[in-house]
């Protein structure tokens, strides 16, 4: 297959041909945009090379658009708002605007970021469905299998994000007409969505190898399916999948900081790839997290709660996870994704290169996560384990952090804490709290201490009001909104 970076240089033009009127946050036709060019998906795909450009267009959807406009889909670049900033890990600096709705648990159905992410995930699903709809032009059977696997991995990941964040969602497993509102606006039970996710990832595992880190791989599909099974309480299946990844040649980086700044290293299982300086392939979330560099004056700022956890339990990870904002010493910034790895100088906002055109890859799955999922699978919902395999996986993560005392037992709370300090600011915390059954107690207590407005209905986001309106009453809203 072609080199990922080379293909990405041309993908903006190719994606324009395939999906010409890409969805916007105010479009009603986001599942099949109306083309304004003579070349459409129906006429474009004629061979394997052209189908592969459709595959790469899916990753372009994951990248999102590096802009300041909510009319552009930002995809993974906005995910931290919906995950980390709704947990006890991060908040805004100024406590103002739409962004502050997440930390205060008063998210409105009209929130543009909520609508943007929802539309972005369906854009990704749409592009995957286009590829799956055109596999018939691929004459090489092996390539057809690989392309199907890759498209289904991406579709599964998008649906996994949607179902965990919004609950029951429309289930679109093929290209549909904009007039097919019955499918477009019918919310399907989460169990049915999970059935498709499991099926897609099972297909992906059977059709992929471990060639790539910024494209789907067998290990990425195994790790993602393990997390799905953990979410569903299927612990033995999750354990087997984790052990398959553990035996696939991945490893922990010796230095925790190198995980994030020696990109596509041995610890990375799957990441969304970015390239610096090019507006078409760069990202600005790294800049957003700094002081007055990005679109805002600081979001995803670190809470005192997670600072206390990192300071006491983070070991060597702490120094590479957050830092003090030199321009306002009561504030603290995430440092796992400093733009292009630059420190920003003493003021926290002077960078050698344009911080809003950062090239940091976004890590979706890495080996340390799999090791801790392995422990979770063996724990199997229990309160503690002394299983030797679990202790070994847990010990490896602790050892890398410089916490080398021998582990003789792992409790559920200790595992949740370890996941927090290892994976802080990587968009796992909220999902971990829900999966471990701790979200209600932890977030209620955090809310009470900080004067926030958490209630149990806040575990799901609202269905975007735009979708409710366009459905003419066909779509129902989540409780609490």
UniProtKB/TrEMBL annotation:
Residues 322-481 form the RagB/SusD domain. It is found in: Cell outer membrane. Residues 29-230 form the SusD-like N-terminal domain. Coiled coil: none annotated. PROSITE patterns: PROKAR_LIPOPROTEIN. This is Starch-binding associating with outer membrane. Belongs to the SusD family. One of its GO terms (cellular component) is cell outer membrane. InterPro entries: SusD-like_N, SusD_RagB_dom, TPR-like_helical_dom_sf. Keywords: Cell outer membrane, Membrane, Signal. Pfam families: SusD-like_3, SusD_RagB.
């Amino acid at each position: 297959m072609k080199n990922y970076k080379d293909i990405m240089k041309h993908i903006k033009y190719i994606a324009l041909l395939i999906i010409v009127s890409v969805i916007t946050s105010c479009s009603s036709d986001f599942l099949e945009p109306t083309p304004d060019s003579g070349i459409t998906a129906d006429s474009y795909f004629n061979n394997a090379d052209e189908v592969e450009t459709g595959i790469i267009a899916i990753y372009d959807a994951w990248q999102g658009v590096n802009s300041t406009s909510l009319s552009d889909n930002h995809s993974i670049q906005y995910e931290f708002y919906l995950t980390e900033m709704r947990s006890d890990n991060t908040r805004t600096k100024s406590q103002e605007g739409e962004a502050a709705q997440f930390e205060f648990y008063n998210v409105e159905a009209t929130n543009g970021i909520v609508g943007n992410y929802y539309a972005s995930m369906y854009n990704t699903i749409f592009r995957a469905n286009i590829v799956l709809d055109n596999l018939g032009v691929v004459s090489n059977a092996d390539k057809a299998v690989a392309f199907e696997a890759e498209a289904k991995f991406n579709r599964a990941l998008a649906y996994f994000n949607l179902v965990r964040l919004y609950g029951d969602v429309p289930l679109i497993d093929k290209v549909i007409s904009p007039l097919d509102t019955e499918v477009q606006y019918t919310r399907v039970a989460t169990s049915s969505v999970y059935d498709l996710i499991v099926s897609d990832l099972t297909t992906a595992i059977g059709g992929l190898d471990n060639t790539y880190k910024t494209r789907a791989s067998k290990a990425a599909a195994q790790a993602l399916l393990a997390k799905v099974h953990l979410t569903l309480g299927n612990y033995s299946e999750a354990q087997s999948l984790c052990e398959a990844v553990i035996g696939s040649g991945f490893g922990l980086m010796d230095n925790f900081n190198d995980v994030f700044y020696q990109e596509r290293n041995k610890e990375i299982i799957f990441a969304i790839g970015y390239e610096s300086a090019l507006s078409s392939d760069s990202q600005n979330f790294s800049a957003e997290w700094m002081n007055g560099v990005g679109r805002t004056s600081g979001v995803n700022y670190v809470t005192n709660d997670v600072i206390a956890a990192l300071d006491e339990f983070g070991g060597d990870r702490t120094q590479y996870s957050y830092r003090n904002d030199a321009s306002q010493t009561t504030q603290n910034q995430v440092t796992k994704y400093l733009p292009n790895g630059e420190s920003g100088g003493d003021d926290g906002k002077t960078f050698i290169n344009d911080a809003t055109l950062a090239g940091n890859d976004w890590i979706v799955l890495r080996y340390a996560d799999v090791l801790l999922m392995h422990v979770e699978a063996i724990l199997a919902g229990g309160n503690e384990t002394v299983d030797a395999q679990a202790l070994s996986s847990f010990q490896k993560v602790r050892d890398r952090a410089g916490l080398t005392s021998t582990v003789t037992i792992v409790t559920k709370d200790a595992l949740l804490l370890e996941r927090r300090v290892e994976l802080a600011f990587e968009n796992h915390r909220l999902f971990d709290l829900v999966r471990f059954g701790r979200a209600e107690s932890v977030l209620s207590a955090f809310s009470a201490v900080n004067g926030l407005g958490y209630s149990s209905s806040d575990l799901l986001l609202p269905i975007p009001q735009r979708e409710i309106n366009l459905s003419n009453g066909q779509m129902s809203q989540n409780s609490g909104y």
